């Protein structure tokens, strides 16, 4: 039985497994090649194979690479950070004397 992680998928099947359109996948591959692809704020590259003497053949992507991309796309809950309420300053700029009534 062949190793599933090295199974090569065509662009249509890779896009289906990622939950995106084939057009979006081709856009991602182009931006990845230029080093401009970001997924969830992280700059990444996609490893893929392209046949043909001039690199114009069919695109094939390993299933392991699809799994890696899916993990990068996964949204995980982030704990909310409790912030302290802002405190009012105990001084006022420009006032250098104690506040209150003068007779007290």
Largest sheet: 3 strands, antiparallel
Helix content: 25-40%
Largest sheet, spatial ordering of strands? 1-5-4
Write down the overall mean pLDDT.
87
Secondary structure tally: strands? 5
Shape: rod-shaped
Poorly predicted residue ranges: none
Total helices: the number is 3
Q: Quote the distance from N terminus to C terminus.
A: 93 Å
Work out the radius of gyration: 28 Å
What structural class is derived from the secondary structure elements? alpha+beta
Measured by DSSP, the beta-strand proportion falls in: 5-15%
Features:
3-stranded antiparallel β-sheet; about 100 residues; alpha+beta; 5 strands
Describe the structure.
There is one protein chain. The protein is an alpha+beta fold and 104 residues long. It is 31% helix and 12% strand. The chain is built from three helices and five strands; from the N terminus they run βααββββα. The chain has a three-stranded antiparallel beta sheet with strand order 1-5-4. A hairpin with an 8-residue loop joins strand 4 and strand 5. Helix 1 packs across helix 2 (22-34). The longest helix has 13 residues, at 22-34. The mean pLDDT is 87.
Per-chain topology:
Layout (H helix, E strand, L loop, with lengths): L7 E3 H8 L3 H13 L3 E2 L2 E2 L5 E2 L8 E4 H11 L31
Antiparallel strand pairs: 1-5, 2-3, 4-5
Helix pairs in contact: 1-2
């Amino acid at each position: 039985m062949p190793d599933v992680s090295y199974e090569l998928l065509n662009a249509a099947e890779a896009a289906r497994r990622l939950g995106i359109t084939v057009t979006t996948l081709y856009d991602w591959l182009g931006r990845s090649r230029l080093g401009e692809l970001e997924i969830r704020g992280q700059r990444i590259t996609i490893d893929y194979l392209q046949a043909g003497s001039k690199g114009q053949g069919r695109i094939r992507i390993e299933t392991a690479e699809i799994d890696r991309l899916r993990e990068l796309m996964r949204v995980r809950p982030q704990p909310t950070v409790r912030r302290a309420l802002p405190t009012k300053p105990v001084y006022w700029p420009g006032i250098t004397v104690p506040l209150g009534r003068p007779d007290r």
